[in-house]
């Protein structure tokens, strides 16, 4: 039994809270975590947390946004209750796929525009124009904001209004500008958002250039700030989609690896695993997959997944290309996340077409949203192995191909070590 430690569970993963408490030999903290009739969260910590080392377990699954707010409120409640230290234990970290620079992946601003400045106009000091009227002016591009406002003014109500950059709506003033008929209202009079560029149909005759980036919220940064502001002193998570996301926090973040559990599964459950090929279903996961291939001295292949979305959320519009020889071999797809399961099911189809005899998919976070379980059931994948970083009971009931690895012991041990001030680097070497 570990003393002076409190484990408080959110509503996202009760089974994980129970397992961790069992490993540590302590009861879960008594609390009320419910909703008022208006939908707001209600949190009361019933046990004393004064001077205690508190670990709050909440995963980024289910009602992700509700669970995130609940986590912030629980952290805050513990701080107000004079907890000595509060650690958020978040097996699947919400919004960790969205820490990017606030543009989408469609190319550099104006980079593919036929009408953009010729290369000779670019200098090292050039600043890309912000894609909105009234925004900061381009320092080095002649066709920046000024060019845009000119176009907008030409297209506004027969040019009746003069466009003055200062009088145009600011981004912060705007919410939505697309009418129900899909036609954009007068940009010089009404609100305007950069999402207007996403639809790219017609803004009063103005058609934004292809490659012109859209403004995407820095949700990952915001979430990191929210947790820190709420009072979190430390974060423990697993397999962040972008490990660099740790740098968004100014508190310690321990990013545990699911790799060792997956590796162990390969060694103990896949016959003649040395003859199999580890496959990364996209370039983004290559480092993760090669780490396993290198550790187990296995061959490696890569699927290059190129997403050329028509819309930002269009996942289906992607082409895939295999690099490596997998004919007549068992293939083991390794990835951090299966959400819609499009990536792994399409990869499995490609692998089978190229001659794979059997396809495993080993995934850390099995989110399986929407109809993804049905997609996996109907796919060429023979077995899917996920951890229980998010609840898997329902998925397992619906998917006979699914096998679940329990990561509660890893988190329990991490909590014990952090509490006692011991190194947790040993957890990065477990096999
Ligand atoms: O089940 P799905 O809905 O297909 O999503 C899963 C994929 O999405 C993530 O990568 P992402 O496409 O964000 O690209 P990246 O690895 O290049 O960041 C993740 O690493 C998976 O490969």
Automatic annotation (TrEMBL):
<feature type="domain" description="Ribose-phosphate pyrophosphokinase N-terminal">
    <location>
        <begin position="6"/>
        <end position="99"/>
    </location>
</feature>
<dbReference type="GO" id="GO:0006015">
    <property type="term" value="P:5-phosphoribose 1-diphosphate biosynthetic process"/>
</dbReference>
<dbReference type="GO" id="GO:0000287">
    <property type="term" value="F:magnesium ion binding"/>
</dbReference>
<dbReference type="InterPro" id="IPR029057">
    <property type="entry name" value="PRTase-like"/>
</dbReference>
<dbReference type="GO" id="GO:0006164">
    <property type="term" value="P:purine nucleotide biosynthetic process"/>
</dbReference>
<dbReference type="GO" id="GO:0004749">
    <property type="term" value="F:ribose phosphate diphosphokinase activity"/>
</dbReference>
<keyword id="KW-0545">Nucleotide biosynthesis</keyword>
<dbReference type="InterPro" id="IPR000836">
    <property type="entry name" value="PRTase_dom"/>
</dbReference>
<feature type="region of interest" description="Disordered">
    <location>
        <begin position="104"/>
        <end position="182"/>
    </location>
</feature>
<dbReference type="InterPro" id="IPR005946">
    <property type="entry name" value="Rib-P_diPkinase"/>
</dbReference>
<dbReference type="InterPro" id="IPR029099">
    <property type="entry name" value="Pribosyltran_N"/>
</dbReference>
<comment type="similarity">
    <text>Belongs to the ribose-phosphate pyrophosphokinase family.</text>
</comment>
<dbReference type="GO" id="GO:0002189">
    <property type="term" value="C:ribose phosphate diphosphokinase complex"/>
</dbReference>
<dbReference type="Pfam" id="PF13793">
    <property type="entry name" value="Pribosyltran_N"/>
</dbReference>
<dbReference type="GO" id="GO:0005737">
    <property type="term" value="C:cytoplasm"/>
</dbReference>
<feature type="compositionally biased region" description="Basic and acidic residues">
    <location>
        <begin position="151"/>
        <end position="173"/>
    </location>
</feature>
<dbReference type="GO" id="GO:0005524">
    <property type="term" value="F:ATP binding"/>
</dbReference>
<protein>
    <recommendedName>
        <fullName>Ribose-phosphate pyrophosphokinase N-terminal domain-containing protein</fullName>
    </recommendedName>
</protein>
<dbReference type="Pfam" id="PF14572">
    <property type="entry name" value="Pribosyl_synth"/>
</dbReference>
């Amino acid at each position: 039994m570990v003393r002076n430690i409190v484990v408080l569970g959110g509503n996202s993963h009760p089974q994980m809270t129970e397992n961790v408490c069992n490993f540590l030999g302590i009861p879960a903290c008594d609390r009320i975590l419910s909703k008022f009739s208006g939908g707001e969260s209600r949190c009361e910590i019933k046990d004393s947390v004064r001077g205690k080392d508190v670990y709050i377990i909440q995963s980024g699954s289910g009602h992700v946004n509700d669970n995130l707010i609940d986590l912030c409120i629980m952290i805050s409640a513990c701080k107000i209750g004079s907890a000595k230290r509060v650690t958020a234990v978040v097996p699947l970290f919400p919004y960790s796929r969205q820490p990017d620079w606030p543009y989408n992946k469609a190319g550099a601003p104006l980079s593919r525009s036929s009408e953009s400045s010729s290369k000779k106009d670019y200098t090292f000091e050039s600043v890309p124009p912000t894609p909105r009227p009234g925004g900061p002016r381009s320092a080095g591009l002649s066709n920046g904001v000024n060019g845009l406002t000119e176009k907008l003014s030409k297209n506004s109500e027969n040019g009746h209004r003069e466009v003055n950059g200062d009088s145009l709506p600011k981004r912060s003033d705007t919410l939505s500008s697309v009418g129900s008929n899909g036609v954009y209202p007068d940009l010089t009079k009404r609100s305007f958002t950069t999402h207007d560029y996403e639809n790219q149909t017609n803004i009063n005759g103005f058609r934004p250039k292809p490659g012109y980036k859209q403004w995407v919220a820095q949700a990952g940064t915001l979430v990191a700030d929210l947790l820190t502001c709420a009072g979190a002193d430390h974060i423990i998570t697993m397999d962040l989609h972008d490990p660099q996301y740790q740098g968004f926090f100014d508190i310690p973040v321990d990013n545990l690896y699911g790799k060792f559990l997956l590796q162990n599964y390969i060694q103990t459950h896949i016959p003649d695993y040395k003859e199999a090929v580890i496959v990364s279903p996209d370039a983004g996961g290559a480092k993760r997959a090669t780490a396993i291939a290198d550790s187990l001295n296995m061959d490696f292949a890569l699927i290059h997944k190129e997403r050329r979305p028509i819309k930002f959320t269009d996942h289906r519009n992607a082409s895939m290309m295999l690099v490596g020889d997998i004919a007549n071999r068992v293939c083991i797809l390794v990835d951090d996340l299966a959400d819609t399961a499009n990536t792994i099911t399409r990869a499995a189809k490609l692998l089978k077409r190229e001659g794979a005899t059997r396809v495993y998919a080993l995934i850390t976070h099995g989110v399986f949203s929407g109809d993804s379980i049905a997609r996996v059931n109907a796919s060429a994948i023979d077995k899917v192995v996920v951890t229980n970083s998010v609840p898997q009971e329902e998925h397992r009931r619906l998917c006979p191909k699914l096998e679940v690895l329990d990561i509660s012991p890893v988190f329990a041990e991490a909590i014990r070590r952090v509490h006692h001030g011991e190194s947790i680097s040993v957890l990065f070497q477990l096999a």
